[in-house]
Each structure stands twice: as C-alpha cells, then as structure tokens.
Amino acid sequence: MKNLTMTNSGFLSRRSVLRGAGVCLALPFLESLLPRGVSAAPPGKPVRLIYWHIPNGILRDLWDPTGAMLDAATPPASLAPLATAGLFPDVNVLTGVDNLAGVPSGPGDHASGMGALLTCVAARKSVDNYELGISADQVAAKTLGAFTPRPSLEVGMAGGGGNGDCDNGYGCAYAQTISWSDAKTPRTKYKNPKEAWTWLLGNQSANLSAEQRERIRRGDKTVLDYLTAEAGRLSPKLTAEDRQKLEQYLTSVQETEKQLDSGVATAACQAEVAPEDSTSYQTRMAAMQKVMEFAVRCDLTRVITFSLGNAFGPGAMPWVDVGDYHGLTHNIRGAGSRDGVARCILWEVEQIAAFAKSLKAIVEGEHTALYNTVLMVSSEIGEGDPHDHERLPCLLAGNAGGAIATGRHLNYSPEDGKARQLGRSRNIGDRTQALAIPNTNRMANLHLSLLQSVGVQTDKFADSNQPLAGLLTT
Amino acid sequence: MKHKKLAVTTKALARQMAVVSALTVGLAVASGCTGTIGGDNNGMGPPGTNPGAGASSSTGGGGPGGSSAVGGQGDGSTSTAPLTGPGRVLIHRLNVVEYNNTVHDLLGTSQRLSSNFPADFTAFGFDNVASALTLTDVTLGQFSEAAKRIAVDVLAEHRSNVLSCDLAAGKETCVKAALEALLPRAWRRPVEAGDVEPLVGIYTAIKADGNTEDEAFARVLQAVLTAPEFLYRVERNSGVAGIRDLNGYELASRLSYFIWSTMPDAELTTAAASGALKDTSGLTSQLKRLLSSDKGAAFTENFGSQWLPVRALQSAKPSPDVYGDFDEELRAAMGMETMRLFVDIAKGSRPLPELFTSTSGYVNDRLAKHYGMAPVGSDTPVFTKLPTNRTGLLTQGSFLTAVAFTNDSHPVKRGKWILANVLCKEPPEPPFAIPEVPERAEGTSRKEQLAAHQREPVCAACHALMDPLGLALEQYDGIGSFRTEDRGAVIDPSGVFKGDTGELPFAGPAELGQIIATAPSVARCVAQHVFAYGIGRGPRSGSDFDSFILDQVGKTFQASGQLFPQLVEAMVTSDVFRKREDEANAP
Fold it and tell me: What residues of A are in contact with residue B120 (Cβ under 8 Å)?
C-alpha cells in the first residue's frame, strides 16, 4: 500500500489512518484513503454529471433529428456544430420528454420551468416563500460528493439579484438558479470564473505541510462543532418558521464538516493559473468553460450545474446580432426574428460542442473524460414562443462510463396524450391532473436514469415512475 | 407596396387574434388587468386616496390600535385582540453589503471580502428581504473563509479593537474579558449566560493543539463571526402568542440596518439599553440622527439604486454597433444624475414629485454632451437647468438605458416599469400564444405598430395601460438620446394616461411626468417599496394590517408634501416596525 502514502501532495489524515488501522490488501478498496487528486472511477462506471441550462428553449424543427440514429452528414441545423466537431458519435438527442411540473399557475413559465428543470416539482407560486424540491445535481452530489474536495459546483453567466428578473408572482430565486439543496434552499452560483476557480481549490495553500494542514482541519472542526451547538442553543428561542430557516444554517454547517475530510487538489493543479474575470460575455464564457474543464480534469468535483443565463435568457447577444433573445423568441413568426433565434441557439450549441471537445481531450485510461461523464443540456421551456413544458430539448453528451450508448435519437411520447393537453392550460387544477397521469416520458424518469447511470443508488427521483426506457445499457 | 404588406399582415393578425381571444380571454380576467391604474392592485389593498375612513381596518378589529399605528401618537396602545397583527420578519441573514459594513464597523477591518461572494437572491426588488436570503454550505464557507482572513487582519492591524490585555500573560482571563466587550456589539444584544464559556473553550482547545495565542484567538473571532447570532438578525419568540413590542436592541438593529446597512453604533446601543427607543420621540430622534449622518448614504444608495433602475443600469449592454458613443463614463454620469437627485429627495430637500418633474438636474460634462447641452465645466455633476426636453426620471439616461433593448428603445418595457415601480400596478406576462407582431415597415412609427395591441381586448387590457406611457418616451432612444423621428416616421409622444381619476391626455413626456407626479397611488406605492426594504419582508397580500399601514404611511407622506424623511419616519414609527407577533411554544 506504499502508493497510498507517497504522493507529493497527498497525505493521509490521522483520522482516516485511524479508521483504516490494520489496512492491508485484503480490505475493500477505500475511496477516502486514496491520495487526493486521483480519480477513483470504478472501472466501467461513470464518474460525473454535468447539467447545462440554455434559456428560452429551442426551435424544434431545427433541432429534432428525424431518424433513429444521428447522422453527422445531415445534422439538424441547430446541432450542426456537434457534427462538425465530430461529436455525433458521443451524443444522444432525446425528443418528446415532457416536464409538466414546469407548467405554472397562470403566467410565469420561465421561472416555474426553471424551478422544475432539475427538480421536477411544481414551484409554489410565491415571491419569497419558496417551496420546490431537491434538484437532481444535489441528489447526485450526496453520492459523488464524497470523492472530491467539493461536492458540487454551481456556475453560470448571470448572477442573482437584479431588479425585475422575476416572473409574475414567482420569486426571483426560481428564475435565478437551477440548483436547490432542498425545497426551501436555492443555491447561489458563481458568475466570476476566477472566484469559482479559487473556491474549487478550497482556498488552500500549496505550501503547507501535512501536519499544518491537519492542524487547520482540527481547528475548522472545532469551530464547526461550536456552530452546531450554537444553532442548537438558539433554536428553542425561535418561532417554528425561524427554526426551519435556521435548519439551512445547520445543514450548511454539517455539509461543511463533511467536506473537511475530502481531499485537496494536487500541487500541480493548485499551480495552474486561474482565468481572469471579464466584462465581455464571450470572454467570460470561455473562462467559465475553462473552470469547468479544470474542475473535471483535477477531479475537484463530479457534479456541475451551469446556466448560460437566468430564466429569460442572457438578454443581449450582440455577437449574433441579437438585442434581446427572449423578446425575439416572442416575435417568432416574423422571418427576421426566427433567424435571430436560430443564430442564438446555434451559438449556444457551438459552446456546448467546444466544452464537450475539451472533455474529450482529457484522457482517462482507455477512454476520455467525456466518455466518463454525462452532460445533459436542457432548458426551462420547450420552445421560446409558446413557452411550453413538453418535448423539452434534452441533449446528452458522454457515455456515463459506458452506461449510456451514444449516437442515437431517442424519441419518447406520452402514453396518454391528455396530459399534454392539460399541461397547456395554466389552470392549477389542470396542471395537477396532468401530473397525475402516469406517462413514462417525464423528465423525472430521465433524471432517475442519469442518476443511476453515475452510480447513485436510487429507484426514485421526484415523481419518476420508472427509468427512462431504452436509455441505459443494462 | 408598403400598404399592401400591412393589409395582409393585419388580416392575418385579425384571424390570429380571433383564435387567441377564444383561448385566452379568461386569462385576461384572471390576470388582474382591470383597465385602470391604481385600481384593485393585485390584492395590495385600496388605493392611497382612501380618505381616512379607516374602512380597510374594519375587519382588523382596530388591531393596529388606530392612532398608534402611524405617526406614533400612542405608545403601544393595544385594543381588544386584533384579528390581524403586524406579522413578523423571518430570521434575517446579513446580505453581502451588510456583512462588509458590519465587520468594518465592528472590528475596523477595511477588507471588503463579501463583495466577491455570489449575489444574494432578491425579492420585491431588494436584496435585503429576509425570506430570499438563504444559506448553503457554499455561502457558509465563504463567510468562514472571510472570517478567518478578517481575524488575521484585525489581530495584525486593529488589535486594540478586540484585545486590551496580553494573551500570553492573561490567557483565558484575557480572552474572557475580550469577549465580554466584543459579544454585545457583535451579536447586537447583551451578553447572556452560555455565551462566553464555549468560546473560551475554543481558545483553550486550539492553543492546546500546538497553535500560537494569536492563532487560537483568531479561531475565537472566526467563531464569533460565523455564529448564527452574528450572521442573522434574530428576533426571539417569547413563547406567548400575541403581539409584543420589539425590545430596544431589536429595534436598534432594525433601525440601523434600515438606514445604515450596518450594525448599531455605540450611541444607538446606549439608547436601546436605556429604553429611549421605546417611546416615539426617542425613536424618531435616533432615526433623524441616523438619516443625517454620513452613514445614512447607505440608505439612499442601497434603496435608491434598487428601486430606481440604477443598479439595473450597471448591467445594461447598449450595442456598440448602434450606440458607439456609449461608454463607461457616460454610464457613470447617468447613474450619478439619478442618484444625486434621489439623494436630495431622500433628504427631504426636494419633494418626491420632483423626481418626475424636475427641470434641473445633476449633469457633468459627459452627460451634458449626451443631452446636447453646453458643457457645465466639471466632471463632477453640477445641478443645472436642463433643456426643455428633459424633465425628471422618465427622461433620464439611467432609466432610458436600463429599460430598453440593447439596440433600440423599448416602449412596452418602459411602460411596464412605470406601472410596476411607480404605480404598483404590475401587469402579468402576455397570454399564452400571442399572435405574430407584424414587422415594422420603414416609415411606420412604433406607435402605429403597437396600435395593434389596442385592437384586441385581451391585449388591450394591459397594453392600454402600458403602451402610452412607454410610447411617450419614444423620442429617447436606447441610450436616451433625443430624436424626433425613428425609421422615417415622425414620433408622436402624446397619449392618454388611464388612472384612478379617469383618463388624462398628455402631449408628451413633460406632461406625463406631471401626471405621474400627482397620481394618487404613487405615495402608497413608494411606501410599499420602503416597507419591503425597511422591514425586510413584502407587505402580505390579503393582510388588512399591512394594507392599513401602507394606507396610513402613504397618507402621512402625501400630507407632508411628499417629503421622503416623513415617509421613513411614518414607517419606523408604525406598529409593523416596532412590534411583532409571537407564537406559543409547541407543547
């Protein structure tokens, strides 16, 4: 077991050594004893999940493939960049997946769709009294987070805050994040690539000795124990709803404590130079992709959510000559506006292709990081103009370590078409009825399958009723 | 050719709309666009002109105690058990601005570390609303990391702020003394049993683990700065159901974070301790002190830049192709113009209506150039007479740029902004499946194009309110430059304002500014914004109590001649600021 102790940066915490007392070859392979920075990918199994949100939906007639296999010679117009980059063999395009949980009560599609994207829960219509559900990335993080310094990374091109971003009685948090720790806790995201990079590295200095690091950890633990006790001391003095809000604090303390035992990046990774922030969207986009590639390559996290823009989209996209992407989607039947929307989508897919390529360039044994990943691209709505919640774009890149065969077009449809009809109403009663119809083409089933593909032991996610048919290689 | 194209499109439009109306007419009714501005305002209660009948409080059973609610005549006069009460605020996390200010005021550090944290979520237009301020492991990690660095900085640079004894010599005794001085300030309440010992215990443990005295004390500071009673403003539950007065420390905290976005200072804390804040005159005298101090700029800056689209201006991206002239200097000048006028209003030097009617403004050379004025001779804004085509916020660069397309004006969005932020009448999203908007042909004005909105009831319901307001500003392009025509069509800025007092025609932006300045619902609407910012929660829809408070505060504000400090004072002396509803402890 010499290799477990002899890396140039890795070390074994006294705690883990004590746990592993009597370690010998006969014991099962213990993840936590590995030197930090080394991927623990069980052979043949995927290691990471990346969720990539594009706002304002797509144009189905430019996106949906026709045949059952993807043909790089005749790609759908919007997906051409993937074909050009040689990525068609590495992706699946799913059509016909519905996320009727995203249907709002009255108006509010962008916010409610955004909320439902990774949670498959119908958001409570409230400006500030949020009620949603845990998002798929956070479910994944509970399993995959054990292996890396950070359980998950939330990044995006838009921040929180901002006036008037919100949607008809649906609170701003719904519109500004896709990642939720639980029903009441939206997660913020980094929009500054340099800050995200620094955070990924855990603000650790590469120059500390093992003993110093361990002493710091003990100090951190001492303070965290104190904070837990303080929360307990304060709690009885509060109202029930304040106690519930304080739960967020307690959970945060406990999560932080768990992360104390996860590793640090290798010295080589710590020495890499972070990209700078930029006021240019395109520059910052490239920088953010670099951060995500770094996170994957240095195994700093195995769960990432990325949002190209908050609900309603990044607004201006002058590099494709568009002044207001969202506004343009609603003028869709004018020829000029349709072309503009198509340009925005094409640009978005170019970014996805570039990122997927960067993952494909990372060698992992016989395969690549892309092979050992599943990157899911979707949106808060199906198409921008009707802002519907059926037939959402679902592009999957990567093979989840072999659990997912790629190169396919998988077309789903509901067993009972009434669900879609009801889903087009904005009446809360209709929406409830729609959700009760047990169609299997629902987003929750896709999320369930993706979670299973990366080794999360579960047979349920939100209102899933089965894994999505035909997706995973059994 | 042009007409033919239009005719075809209009026919198609009519056909589409016939289909749409069948599908969506129900929606318009449900959507609350009732056709008058200032009417039933999505459950926010009756408009501010309700002439003191107090009718809206009738089901409240006199709950707010009538007279003590606003203007603070009675001190905590309670009547028979009210049906509704002042509610309460959720345990209230410091936002990133407040955190920076607080650590500075507490410890003297000049590190502004939380400026790098991801932005907080907002609600009701503000980033200091308790329910929207959540916490995850990531955020806690950021606060922890910041606390560590601040602790190191404080021990190096501002040591006497936290220690007045020698750690090596005094050991735990020194630590205890330091904490007894620090905690009441850090946690904004007097020290209690159980506060100090566990923190001293941290010192002991860290010291025993091979760390230096300073490292051990830094851990103590880290703990103090990440404890829940530092990160959150806590108002305790008494365990007895009913309305109680906030205690002095709770009031001091509310007041200080409202006006200064930071912790109470020594004088305010002393006032709290002595009970001076319990009566109205003590409370108002502290309020006045806070408002007139330098730190009062936090209120004008943080409230003003969020209510008015000055923060929004920071993220506006005018297209360089169309607006090559726009640069950061201009953006800054625009921001200053609006904020400095607002500062005057917030101070009470100018009444609020001048926000919409002022014929002078704070202009520097860069902005003067933009507005086609003679130079003012300064980079610093100078209050100077504006050209006749500039009167108030609606013609200010900040608003016109922040609320626009990147390559053009946006009359619908501008109209919507006015409705939502000044009149508190926000229209909902468009109905599902809107019909196509015809391309605007050369020589067609926006006004003609958008007339299509008026032809279909389901569209007109909301657009009849929004469009005229935004169309009045069509002479100002996407960065607020003045123009008389657009795409070959002469711009006609006249329109009709549909409000409480009927339909009021206007010839252009100046007249519209006058109408808005005198619209009855403005006072109450501004009160609503101040309520959300100052209390940290939105007014509860369907709450008679909150509605009553807003009515009263709006009226007091109006009666004062719309002097902003009067609005703030009315809010601070109201029961919703000074009291809260507790609940019984669970059995």
Answer: 160-161, 188
Q: Output the average pLDDT for chain B.
A: 84
Burial profile B463-480: b = 16 or more Cβ within 10 angstroms, e = fewer: bbbbbbbbbbbbbbbbbb
Residues of A whose CB is below 8 A from B309: 163
Q: Which one, of B27, B18, B38, lies nearest residue B418 by Cα?
A: B38
Distance CA B284, CA A474 (A): 72
What is the C-alpha separation between A289 and A293, in angstroms, rounded? 6
Q: Is A176 on the interface with B (CB under 8 A)?
A: yes
Contact B198 A181 (CB under 8 A): no
Give B324-379 pLDDT, tens digit per residue: 999 999 999 999 999 999 999 999 999 999 999 999 999 999 999 999 999 999 99
For chain A, the average pLDDT equals 86
* B431 contacts on A by Cβ (under 8 Å): 107
- The number of residues in chain B equals 587
- The answer to whether A164 contacts chain B (CB < 8 Å) is yes
Whether B428 and chain A come into contact, CB under 8 Å, resolves to yes
A377-387 b/e (C-beta count within 10 Å ≥ 16 → b): bbbbbbbbbbb
Q: What letter does residue B558 receive in the DSSP assignment?
A: H
Integer Cα distance of A238 and A242 in angstroms: 6
- Select the residue from B31, B121, B149 to test the A interface by mutation, using most A Cβ atoms within 10 A: B121
Alpha carbon distances (Å) from B165 to B63, B160, B171, B175, B177: 53, 9, 9, 9, 8
B476 min Cα distance to partner chain A (Å) = 17
Q: With beta carbons under 8 A apart, name residues in chain B contacting A227.
A: 223, 226-228
Supply the ipTM of this predicted assembly.
Answer: 0.84
Cα separation values, A414 from A437, A443, A468, Å: 9, 12, 12
Pick the closest to residue A201 from A289, A304, A299 (CA basis): A299
DSSP of B367-400 = HHHHTTPPP-S-SS-EEEEPPTT--SGGGSHHHH
**B414 to each of A316, B420, B477, how far by Cα in Å?**
17, 10, 12
Q: Hey, which residues 16-55 in chain B have their CB within 8 Å of chain A? A: 27, 30-31
Amino acid of residue A290: K
What is the residue type of A284?
A: R
Query: In this model, does residue A15 exceed pLDDT 80?
Result: no
CA distance B388 to chain A (A): 30
Q: What is the pLDDT along chain B (587 residues), one digit of tens a residue?
A: 333 333 333 344 344 344 433 333 333 333 344 433 333 223 232 222 222 222 222 222 223 333 333 333 333 333 333 447 899 999 999 999 999 999 999 999 988 888 778 888 888 989 999 999 999 999 999 999 999 999 999 999 999 999 999 999 999 999 999 999 999 999 999 999 999 999 999 999 999 999 999 999 999 999 999 999 999 999 999 999 999 999 999 999 999 999 999 999 999 999 999 999 999 999 999 999 999 999 999 999 999 999 999 999 998 888 888 899 999 999 999 999 999 999 999 999 999 999 999 999 999 999 999 999 999 999 999 999 999 999 999 999 999 999 998 888 989 889 999 999 999 987 766 665 555 556 667 777 888 888 877 777 777 778 888 889 999 999 999 999 999 998 888 999 999 998 888 899 999 999 999 999 999 899 999 999 999 999 999 998 777 899 999 999 999 999 999 999 999 999 999 999 999 999 998 76
β-strand pairing of A367-368 with A373-378: unpaired
Tokens of B283: 């409370």
B587 in reach of chain A (CB within 8 A) = no
Instruction: Give the span between the Cα atoms of B552 and B527, in whole angstroms.
Output: 9
Which of B519, B567, B347 has its CA nearest to residue B418? B519
